[in-house]
Amino acid sequence: MKKIAIFDSGVETPEEIIMAAGFTPYRLFGDPTIDPEKANEHIPPTHCIWTRNLLEQALNGLPEDIVGIIGTHGCDRTNREFDIWLECLDYEFMFFLNSPRKINELALNFFINDIKEMILQLEETFNIKITNENISQAIKLMNEIRSMLKKISDLRFEKKLYGYEFHSIVKRAQQEDKKSMLEFLNSKFNELNQRSKIVENDYKNILLTGSEIDDTEFIKYIEDLGFHVIVDDLGVGTKYFWNTIDEEEDPITSIAKYHLSKPINSTKYPSYKRFEVIKNLATKYNVDGIINVAQKFCEPVLYDHPYMKKKCKELGIPYLFVEVSYNREAYKQLSTRFSAFAEMI
Ligand code: SF4
Question: Is this prediction's pTM over 0.85?
Answer without folding.
Answer: yes
